[in-house]
Amino acid sequence: MNKKNIHVVGAVIIKDDKILCAQRGESKNLSYKWEFPGGKIESGETPQQALKREIQEEMECDIAVGEKIDHTVYEYDFGVVHLTTFYCTLQKGKPILTEHHSIKWLFKHELSSLDWAPADIPTIEKLENM
Ligand SMILES: Nc1nc2c([nH]c(=O)n2[C@H]2C[C@H](O)[C@@H](COP(=O)(O)OP(=O)(O)OP(=O)(O)O)O2)c(=O)[nH]1
């Protein structure tokens, strides 16, 4: 059986040289793994629109979406995630924890101390070598 394709966008939000990292909740797949806030692209949306919407919903703040960082395809047991990550900045408000277990602001050289969702590793490597 073919696995379902899941198209996901992730926001690498940078503020004062630190990057916002978010930990998934207990009841989710990839529970307690770290990720970039974001989510699935809905039909009719551009990746950038999806990212702005997801961050508003999840963290109650507005972002500006900048350049693409990376695009990876990773096969999990529950499906194939196509993850695109973008540089973002905060425009209005401050990220609020709603559905994540926790959030952290880390310098890029600290990112690899967290247990990331596997699809995120190429983005982490790019950020570390930036
Ligand atoms: N938001 C986000 N999701 C990621 C990243 N890396 C990664 O493998 N994923 C996976 C986890 C999920 O299976 C999927 C994103 O879906 P989602 O955030 O909309 O959905 P979810 O599983 O948290 O919850 P649900 O809405 O399906 O209940 O992509 C990442 O950096 N950010």
TrEMBL record:
Keywords: DNA damage, DNA repair, DNA replication, Hydrolase, Magnesium, Metal-binding, Mutator protein
Keyword Metal-binding: yes
EC number: 3.6.1.55
Classification via SUPFAM superfamilies: Nudix
Stored InterPro entries: MutT-like, Nudix_hydrolase, NUDIX_hydrolase-like_dom_sf, NUDIX_hydrolase_dom
Matches recorded under Pfam families: NUDIX (PF00293)
Major enzyme class: hydrolase
Cofactor(s) in the UniProt record: Mg(2+)
Entry's Gene Ontology molecular function annotations: hydrolase activity
Top-rank lineage group of the source organism: Bacteria
Gene3D superfamilies documented for this protein: Nucleoside Triphosphate Pyrophosphohydrolase (3.90.79.10)
Domain Nudix hydrolase per the UniProt entry, residue ranges: 4-128
Catalytic activity from the UniProt record: 8-oxo-dGTP + H2O = 8-oxo-dGMP + diphosphate + H(+)
Family: Belongs to the Nudix hydrolase family.
Record protein name field: 8-oxo-dGTP diphosphatase
Annotated source species: Oceanobacillus aidingensis
Lineage: Bacteria, Bacillati, Bacillota, Bacilli, Bacillales
